[in-house]
């Protein structure tokens, strides 16, 4: 409304003023008529007759007055609120339905928005910033895009791709800061100086890294994350120039990153470090352009004028050129190509399973909303039928159809608004719970932000329209004339086709959700029942980074002695832990089981050396009691004994997969194999169960176990502890025991293995729990809808039922009659739902494990559940129908 | 409640009533009753103004800002609300009158001389 209209609305006339004008008119007319010779009484009558209906004129005055729309809207709202109060049962069901539907979407939006929609904070020109992946097609295998690259690939892309304005590399890892009781873990990101300029972020204090600090060759520097600055240093502005300990080496703080800056990922970052620190934390060759591991993620900023495909092909060329002169890799990598993905990882080619499942669940939440809409539409329609007399009355009293229709829309909007408010209350809890589950390490921020509220408002508005448009149209079109005469609502000609259809739609959607729930629950069960070969339920990993500072040294001798020292500390911790009550067994390993391993060649005596490039088994150097601690069972031969855990013992244990591969027709307890290209005989003393290598659902075997003591250059990285009870309850006890070994230890990372594996199970758990929750909600909504419709039909047909009973229909016959009516709708919806599920099956197959998207058991269970629920929903009304007294209904005619 | 006949009469007056009111007020201020009489008189009794429709129409014109009103006293000492054409109202009158003339001329052309004569 414009300013002028507001002013006029404020200065508008009152009803009384208008009435006075009409009175004045009538008086003037009477004067005129009297003057013309009429008697005063006749004149008054004639004046009134000529004027018509003053009330109607006043009505029209109100409508013509500025702001009348606003006023009649307020009236509609008042009327709607009164209608809601008058039927609390209807209101409760409708609002609850909508709250569930809207709440489900609000909950999902909060995570989806963070995961998929929004660019990371403080990132500018996000549309030109790409993550660079390598599509791996070496050896004909397609393992999907590789996320992590070597420093060599990074420097090639940086130096030889003109299409890129800037290229940066980064890698996230936990580091220990401080010693002894001051030790704490920090989430660090190692990044090139170009990372910050590329993203266009500026520090709140100090500076980011200078180009010459990339390799960490001069003074050690660090930039604090905003959160860490606040919690560790109380936001002290004099922090610049002070040192912070990073894995035993002091770094000078040169800047503080802005609040909420987490790079291009979403996880919290406490500390930013130059990429070169990787030399200490990752390995000696980490930032060597000629060597190094695959540990870097690469982002690149495309020049404005270059299209994405052109940039990708240039990057591919640079990548292949970089490896061309490498004897080992030139051929393998020649078929690989660079891929550019969006800066939001979940939208890219290497999206996590969590992100994919989240999108599914979000789609599902939309289905729940549709079901809720159908439910409310149906309730409104049914109520429309019972309120038909009221509508007819209002129309006959002069209300326009638009006005009556609008009344309906306003009531729908009120219901949706109440639903939205409840949904937001609900989402405060459910959205934070979902975020904590799905994005556990994301910077903590309030769930209820403007975007969420705006989204909820839009969804609520759409819901209101969707749920009320059909009932409103029905009201607008229907001929209410005949209703006015009759004393009660006579059975209308329509056979409630619309209502039946809506119920069918609800059942069909609920069927889809239940089948989805069944498939995800089955997948989760299948994944859980995978035999890992390791008993993870009572297992703790203890990791203390003892050697980071040692690796910095270029002096190999001092590196070796650092390894020896670290191993000695681990052994001391192991001895201490074995005496802790509640600890059943403990051992140490070089490399973390289920996470790391190194390739080890195995050659049988007399066999030719394997061709270059053939896969080799993984080696694992283990301490005493390894197999008992890990719960890996022995299949043949024996475990390592104390006699094997000495330097120079040449024994090994293989898993069944290795045994099968190398000794397909022979005894794997071979007295002589050559390990790691050595020429000393190693004896295979036992065969153990095959275990998974890295991922629960990933490859199994082949692993060759060797005693740690016989491979002295392998440094211990992990302690494994088997506990009698719940391992998470033992974390504090274990920490005390570990730290009692030395007061100068860095932070010990102590975690139950189950927790370590949880992220791998997350997508199935998410799918199973959300599909089940939404499926149950959908089922309840459909059941409520069905109950409402069948109840209404029974009430409407009570006369017919009375007649049937009078003609001798049995109690059971009537119950069957009603049940048949309800089940017919259910079965039609069920069939449509199943057909849709069979059609959509292929889409979801990729997110499932060990179950076909058309699994007959799941579909059968879903059918059974739905039929059972439908029967329960119909049984109440059916029994009420059977209790109808024929005498009462017949007499009332 | 409006009957069918009512609606037809309203349709006849739709738009034209506004024009007639504006035209009447362009000569001088009037109260509602006076406007009705003036229209009747100047059409030589051919146009009867529905008193019940007149006031909502005046209200509409006032809301549009084409007329302004204030309470005063009539010739025979009755309190009445007097209407006056505003500047915007005068412009609107010129526009509407022009449109009306064009319309009637066009209709007359279509009807032709023999019909209009007969």
Keywords, separated by commas or semicolons:
heterodimer; A: 893 residues; alpha+beta; ten-stranded mixed beta sheet; 28 helices; B: 118 residues; Arc Repressor Mutant, subunit A; three-stranded antiparallel beta sheet; 5 helices
Protein model, in words:
The complex is a heterodimer of chains A (893) and B (118). In chain A, 52% of the residues lie in helices and 14% in strands. By secondary structure, chain A is of the alpha+beta class. Chain A has 5 domains: 3-66, no CATH class; 68-118 and 368-487, no CATH class; 126-343, no CATH class; 494-531 and 755-893, no CATH class; 546-746, no CATH class. In chain A, a hairpin with a 2-residue loop joins strand 7 (243-246) and strand 8 (249-256). In chain A, helix 7 (151-160) crosses helix 11 (308-324), helix 13 packs parallel to helix 16 and helix 26 (811-844) runs antiparallel to helix 27 (856-882). Chain A is elongated, with a radius of gyration of 38 Å. Mean pLDDT of chain A is 84; it is low at 485-493 and 550-557. With 118 residues, chain B is an alpha+beta fold. Chain B has one domain: Winged helix-like DNA-binding domain superfamily/Winged helix DNA-binding domain (Arc Repressor Mutant, subunit A), CATH 1.10.10. Helices cover 66% and strands 14% of the residues of chain B. Chain B contains 5 helices and 3 strands, in the order H-H-E-H-H-E-E-H. Chain B has helices at residues 4-13, 16-27, 32-42, 51-64, 87-117, and strands at 30-31, 67-73, 79-85. The longest helix of chain B has 31 residues, at 87-117. Chain A binds chain B through residues 4, 8, 13, 18, 20-22, 24-25, 27-29, 31-32, 50-54, 56-57, 60-61, 63-66, 396-398, and chain B through 1-2, 31-34, 37, 50-53, 55-57, 59-60, 63, 65, 74, 76, 78-81.
């Amino acid at each position: 409304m414009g300013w002028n209209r507001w002013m006029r609305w404020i200065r508008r006339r009152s009803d009384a003023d208008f009435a006075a004008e009409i009175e004045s008119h009538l008086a003037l007319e009477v004067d005129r008529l009297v003057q013309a010779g009429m008697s005063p009484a006749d004149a008054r009558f004639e004046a009134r007759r000529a004027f018509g209906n003053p009330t109607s004129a006043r009505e029209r005055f109100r409508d013509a007055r500025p702001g009348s729309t606003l006023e009649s809207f307020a009236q509609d709202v008042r009327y709607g609120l009164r209608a809601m109060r008058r039927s609390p049962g209807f209101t409760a069901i409708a609002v609850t339905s909508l709250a569930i539907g809207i709440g489900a979407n609000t909950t999902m939006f909060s995570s989806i928005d963070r995961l998929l929609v929004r660019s990371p904070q403080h990132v500018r020109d996000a549309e030109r910033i790409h993550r660079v992946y390598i599509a791996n097609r070496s050896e004909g295998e397609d393992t999907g895009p590789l996320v992590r690259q070597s420093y060599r690939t990074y420097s090639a892309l940086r130096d030889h791709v003109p299409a890129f304005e800037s290229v940066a590399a980064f890698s996230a890892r936990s580091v220990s800061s401080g010693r002894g009781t001051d030790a704490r873990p920090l989430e660090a990101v190692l990044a090139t100086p170009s990372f910050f300029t590329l993203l266009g972020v500026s520090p709140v204090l100090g500076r980011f890294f200078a180009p010459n600090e990339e390799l960490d060759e001069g003074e050690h520097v660090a930039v604090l994350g905003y959160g860490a600055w606040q919690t560790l240093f109380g936001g002290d502005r004099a922090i610049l120039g002070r040192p912070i300990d990073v894995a035993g080496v002091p770094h000078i703080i040169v800047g503080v990153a802005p609040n909420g800056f987490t790079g291009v990922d979403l996880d919290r970052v406490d500390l930013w470090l130059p990429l070169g620190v990787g030399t200490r934390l990752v390995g000696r060759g980490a930032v060597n352009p000629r060597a190094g591991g695959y540990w870097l993620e690469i982002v690149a900023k495309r020049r404005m004028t270059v299209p994405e495909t052109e940039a990708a092909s240039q990057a591919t060329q640079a990548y292949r050129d970089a490896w061309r002169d490498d004897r080992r890799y030139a051929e393998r990598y020649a078929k690989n190509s660079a891929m550019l993905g969006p800066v939001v990882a979940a939208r890219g080619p290497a999206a996590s399973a969590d992100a994919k499942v989240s999108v599914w669940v979000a789609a599902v939440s939309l289905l729940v909303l549709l079901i809720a809409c159908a439910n409310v539409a149906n309730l409104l329609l049914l109520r429309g039928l019972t309120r038909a007399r009221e509508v007819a009355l209002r129309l006959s009293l002069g209300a326009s159809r638009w006005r009556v229709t609008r009344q309906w829309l306003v009531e729908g909007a009120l219901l949706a608004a109440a639903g939205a408010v409840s949904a937001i209350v609900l989402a405060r809890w459910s959205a934070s719970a979902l975020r904590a589950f799905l994005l556990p390490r994301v910077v903590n921020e309030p769930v209820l932000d403007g975007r969420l509220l705006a989204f909820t408002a839009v969804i609520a508005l759409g819901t209101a329209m969707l749920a009320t448009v059909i009932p409103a149209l029905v009201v607008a079109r229907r001929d209410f004339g005949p209703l006015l005469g009759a004393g009660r609502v006579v059975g209308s000609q329509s056979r409630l086709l619309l209502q039946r259809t809506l119920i069918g739609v609800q059942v069909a959607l609920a069927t889809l959700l239940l089948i989805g729930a069944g498939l995800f629950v089955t997948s989760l069960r299948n994944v859980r029942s995978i035999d890992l070969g390791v008993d993870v339920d009572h297992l703790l990993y203890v990791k203390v980074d003892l050697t980071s500072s040692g690796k910095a040294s270029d002096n190999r001798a001092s590196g070796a002695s650092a390894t020896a020292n670290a191993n000695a500390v681990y052994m001391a911790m192991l001895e201490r832990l074995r005496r802790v009550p509640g600890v059943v067994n403990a051992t140490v390993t070089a490399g973390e089981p289920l996470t790391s391993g190194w390739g080890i060649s195995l050659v049988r005596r007399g066999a030719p050396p394997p061709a270059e490039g053939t896969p080799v088994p993984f080696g694992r150097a283990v301490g005493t009691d390894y197999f008992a601690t890990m719960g890996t069972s022995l299949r043949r031969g024996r475990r390592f004994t104390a006699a094997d855990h000495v330097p120079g013992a040449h024994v090994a244990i293989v898993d069944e997969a290795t045994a099968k591969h190398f000794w397909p027709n022979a005894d794997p307890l071979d007295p002589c194999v050559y390990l790691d290209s050595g020429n000393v005989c190693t004896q295979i003393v036992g065969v153990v169960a095959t275990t998974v290598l890295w991922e629960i659902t990933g490859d199994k075997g082949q692993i060759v176990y060797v005693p740690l003591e016989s491979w002295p250059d392998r440094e211990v990285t992990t302690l494994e502890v088997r506990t009698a009870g719940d391992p998470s309850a033992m974390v504090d006890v274990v920490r005390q025991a570990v730290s009692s070994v030395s007061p100068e230890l860095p932070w010990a990372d102590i975690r139950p293995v189950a927790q370590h594996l949880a992220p791998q199970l997350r997508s199935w758990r998410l799918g199973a729990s959300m599909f089940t929750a939404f499926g149950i909600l959908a089922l309840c909504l459909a059941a409520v809808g069905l109950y409402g419709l069948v109840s209404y039909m029974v009430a409407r047909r009570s006369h017919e039922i009375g007649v049937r009973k009078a003609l001798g229909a049995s109690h059971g016959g009537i119950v069957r009659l009603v049940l048949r009516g309800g089940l017919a709708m259910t079965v039609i919806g069920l069939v449509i739902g199943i057909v849709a599920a069979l059609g959509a099956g292929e889409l979801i197959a990729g997110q499932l494990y060990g179950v076909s998207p058309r699994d007959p058991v799941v579909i059968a269970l879903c059918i059974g559940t739905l039929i059972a629920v439908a029967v329960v929903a119909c049984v109440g009304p059916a029994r009420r129908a059977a209790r109808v007294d024929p005498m009462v209904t017949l007499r009332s005619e | 409640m409006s009957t069918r006949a009512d609606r037809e009469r309203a349709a006849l007056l739709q738009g034209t009533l506004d024009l007639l009111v504006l035209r009447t007020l362009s000569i001088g201020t009037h109260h509602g009753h006076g406007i009705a009489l003036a229209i009747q008189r100047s059409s030589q009794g051919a146009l009867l103004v529905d008193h019940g429709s007149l006031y909502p129409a005046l209200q509409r014109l006032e809301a549009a800002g084409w007329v302004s009103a204030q309470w005063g006293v009539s010739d025979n000492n009755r309190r009445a609300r007097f209407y006056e054409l505003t500047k915007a109202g005068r412009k609107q009158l010129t526009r509407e009158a022009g449109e009306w003339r064009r319309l009637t001329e066009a209709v007359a052309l279509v009807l032709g001389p023999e019909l209009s004569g007969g």
